Amino acid sequence: MLIHIDLHDGRATSETIAQMLGTNPVVVRRMMAGLRKQGYVEAARGPNGGWKLARPLEDITVLDVHRALGSPSLFALGITADHPDCPVERSVNAALGTILDDAETRVMSSYGNISLADLIPAIKR
């Protein structure tokens, strides 16, 4: 969303972004609220209103966006606590927990090293 805003006139409405993402404007506003709270976007009202960047893309990392969106889970597969007394669940959780923690640490480290501006050359190709 933020790259779209930057590449398309520097401003976009929730409706425009929702059309791009194939979702509802309410969903966009919820996502943008987290980004606004962290100071990455601003909302302008009125006929020329919409969302605009509050910082340049060079100053926003993928990790920043991930955190502003509530740090959603990176993996669909994960440990569970549905049956904590189950020896199978405990064994699987122990084995997967270490692997998933290590993978998440590596991904987050990589996210922190990639600015949104770093993604633009690949988009323009």
Would you give an account of this structure?
With 125 residues, the chain is mainly alpha-helical. It has a single domain (2-124), classed as Orthogonal Bundle (Arc Repressor Mutant, subunit A), CATH 1.10.10. It has 6 helices and 2 strands. It has helices at residues 2-7, 14-21, 25-37, 62-68, 87-112, 116-124; strands at residues 41-44, 50-53. Strands 1-2 form a two-stranded antiparallel sheet. The longest helix is centred in the last third of the chain and has 26 residues, at 87-112. The radius of gyration is 18 Å and the shape is elongated. The chain starts with a helix and ends with a helix. The model has no long low-confidence stretch (mean pLDDT 91). It comes from Aminobacter niigataensis. This is Rrf2 family protein. It holds the Pfam family Rrf2.
Outline the secondary-structure elements:
Elements lengths: L1 H6 L6 H8 L3 H13 L3 E4 L5 E4 L8 H7 L18 H26 L3 H9 L1
Antiparallel strand pairs: 1-2
Pfam family, one: Rrf2
Protein name: Rrf2 family protein
